[in-house]
């Protein structure tokens, strides 16, 4: 059986893995991966607006992996509209990349649970095989953290190189043309970053659990036998 020191650290490792699983679920549920400002270029061109007047033509947009919201400002007041990525909008985006992001996150959720299972196994027993021991816990954490990092990198690539915000802002717009003037990552994105960081922290936790702790033994006093004791 593992000692109390190892049990404590492997218990912490299991909790961290489970927290990563929950963080990914939260990131998928919250529809705020990125927000931005969109300029109604068509409205600006129609009235030949100058710099002080451009504020009237700047709306807002935010979206996640499944849905989002757009506020259009084209000189006639703000107009709010909700939209869903699936099933129609995804055809206008980079479908393969968008689906790959989702697959990466679902795989990372599974790996986080596997990592938690291995940590619990090491908390209650000492596995005979090395792959089931601390090395296995580290392996699954590296895989889970790496998969989350791939999902984050894929989303950033979709935003920067595939004009994701621009495509979403102009989806099914037949009259007005929108230009993205500002973008920033929101809470869901940073929650995924935190999830990957949790797995990196788990590697440190497992490393600390392997620090050898000297066992405290009670000193047994040696009995002194004398000739008188023998005679007695």
TrEMBL record:
The chain crosses the membrane at residues 9-30, 99-125, 137-159. It comes from the Eukaryota. GO terms for cellular component: membrane; stereocilium bundle. It is a multi-pass membrane protein. It is found in: Membrane. The keyword Glycoprotein does not apply. GO terms for biological process: auditory receptor cell stereocilium organization; sensory perception of sound; stereocilium maintenance. Keywords: Membrane, Transmembrane, Transmembrane helix. Belongs to the clarin family. PANTHER family: CLARIN, CLARIN-2. This is Clarin 2. It comes from Monodelphis domestica (Gray short-tailed opossum).
């Amino acid at each position: 059986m593992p000692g109390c020191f190892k049990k404590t650290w492997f218990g912490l490792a299991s909790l961290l893995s489970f927290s990563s699983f929950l963080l990914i679920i939260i990131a998928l549920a919250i529809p705020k991966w990125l927000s931005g400002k969109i300029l109604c270029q068509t409205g600006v061109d129609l009235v030949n607006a100058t710099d002080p007047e451009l504020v009237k033509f700047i709306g807002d947009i935010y979206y996640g992996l499944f849905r989002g919201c757009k506020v259009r400002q084209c000189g006639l007041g703000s107009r709010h509209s909700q939209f869903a990525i699936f099933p129609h909008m995804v055809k206008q985006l980079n479908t393969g990349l968008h689906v790959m992001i989702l697959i990466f996150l679902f795989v990372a959720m599974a790996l986080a649970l596997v990592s938690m299972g291995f940590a619990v196994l090491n908390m209650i027993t000492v596995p005979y095989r090395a792959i089931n021991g601390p090395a296995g816990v580290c392996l699954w954490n590296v895989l889970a953290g790496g998969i989350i990092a791939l999902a984050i990198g894929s989303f950033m690539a979709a935003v920067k190189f595939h004009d994701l915000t621009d495509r979403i802002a102009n989806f099914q717009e037949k009259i007005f043309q929108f230009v993205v003037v500002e973008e920033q990552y929101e809470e869901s994105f940073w929650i995924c970053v935190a999830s990957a960081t949790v797995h990196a922290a788990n590697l440190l936790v497992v490393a600390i659990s392997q620090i050898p702790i000297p066992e405290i033994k009670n000193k047994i006093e040696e009995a002194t036998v004398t000739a008188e004791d023998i005679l007695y």
